[in-house]
């Protein structure tokens, strides 16, 4: 794919696929938000590459069992750059799909698709959102800003104000199951839409990556846009290697 002629052919094929699709399903991963200053997990600048303890904070069992893991998680979150991040050209280009967008399934927890203007009812946040907190005991939820204000005011591991239980960000941690209704929407999107676009995801995390084989089995073309090879490039109708912002602008903002 480093051959520029092959790249141009893939881009032209992708443009034609997009032009003829009446409805488009989209799957995005951490790579669509790196240009907004939020690092991915596994890349050279990835969170886990720089700080192996981050993997422990992403596990529900260590989070529940170890108060130190929770204190670290809250301290780091209270200083996180994720809350100041702005959508980039890639998020904005997807808004141009307008009514042709069937469903946008994102593995990201940053809320940037909605911030860019994609209607929230078309977005499935399959790994949850960092913009809310939730209680693991009573299920209470609220805006993340509230919890972070308590942390900044000195509560190192703020308990639920309803029941005294443990609260966490409303994200799906390792060891937690996905929400069945969200998974069903993702699967339906890959079958019902005319085309699937997978962007900035290594396609190594299942069951979400399964959207690609599901679309292929349903006879739908798949376009993969990623900076590096993914595990499922061999299934794609067109593979575009490069920056999500550049490639989506070329495809959708022409
Ligand atoms: P990943 O880290 O496994 O893969 C990201 C992929 O994006 C990599 O293959 C990388 O080559 C590619 N990439 C990076 N920058 C790019 C760019 N500018 N243009 C095109 N491609 C680019 O991430 P994943 O597959 O999404 O899965 C890991 C999990 O990480 C997800 O479940 C998600 O919940 C979580 N996560 C979310 C955020 C966020 O919300 N922004 C950030 C980090 C991790
Ligand atoms: Zn509670």
Automatic annotation (TrEMBL):
<dbReference type="Pfam" id="PF02146">
    <property type="entry name" value="SIR2"/>
</dbReference>
<dbReference type="GO" id="GO:0070403">
    <property type="term" value="F:NAD+ binding"/>
</dbReference>
<keyword id="KW-0520">NAD</keyword>
<feature type="domain" description="Deacetylase sirtuin-type">
    <location>
        <begin position="4"/>
        <end position="254"/>
    </location>
</feature>
<protein>
    <submittedName>
        <fullName>Unannotated protein</fullName>
    </submittedName>
</protein>
<dbReference type="GO" id="GO:0017136">
    <property type="term" value="F:histone deacetylase activity, NAD-dependent"/>
</dbReference>
<dbReference type="InterPro" id="IPR050134">
    <property type="entry name" value="NAD-dep_sirtuin_deacylases"/>
</dbReference>
<dbReference type="InterPro" id="IPR003000">
    <property type="entry name" value="Sirtuin"/>
</dbReference>
<dbReference type="InterPro" id="IPR026590">
    <property type="entry name" value="Ssirtuin_cat_dom"/>
</dbReference>
<dbReference type="InterPro" id="IPR029035">
    <property type="entry name" value="DHS-like_NAD/FAD-binding_dom"/>
</dbReference>
<keyword id="KW-0808">Transferase</keyword>
């Amino acid at each position: 794919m480093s051959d520029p002629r092959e790249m141009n052919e893939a881009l032209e094929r992708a443009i034609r696929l997009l032009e003829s699709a009446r409805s488009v399903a989209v799957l995005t991963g951490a790579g669509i938000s790196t240009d907004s200053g939020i690092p991915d997990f596994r890349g050279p600048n990835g969170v886990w590459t720089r700080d192996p303890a981050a993997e422990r904070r992403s596990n529900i069992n260590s989070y529940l069992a170890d108060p130190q893991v929770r204190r670290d998680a809250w301290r780091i979150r209270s200083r996180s750059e994720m809350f100041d991040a702005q959508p980039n050209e890639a998020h904005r280009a997807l808004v141009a799909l307008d009514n042709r967008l069937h469903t946008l399934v994102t593995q990201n927890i940053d809320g940037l698709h909605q911030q860019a203007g994609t209607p929230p009812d078309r977005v499935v946040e399959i790994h949850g959102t960092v913009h809310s907190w939730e209680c693991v005991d009573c299920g209470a939820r609220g805006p993340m800003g509230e919890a972070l204000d308590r942390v900044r005011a000195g509560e190192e591991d703020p308990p639920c104000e309803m029941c005294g239980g443990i609260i966490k960000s409303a994200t799906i941690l390792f060891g937690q199951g996905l929400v069945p209704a969200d998974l069903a929407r993702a699967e339906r999107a890959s079958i019902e839409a005319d085309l699937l676009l997978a962007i900035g995801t290594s396609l190594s995390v299942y069951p979400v990556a399964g959207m690609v084989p599901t679309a292929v089995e349903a006879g739908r073309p798949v376009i993969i846009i990623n900076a590096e090879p993914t595990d499922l490039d061999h299934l794609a109708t067109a593979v575009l290697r490069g920056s999500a912002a550049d490639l989506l602008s070329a495809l959708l903002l022409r």
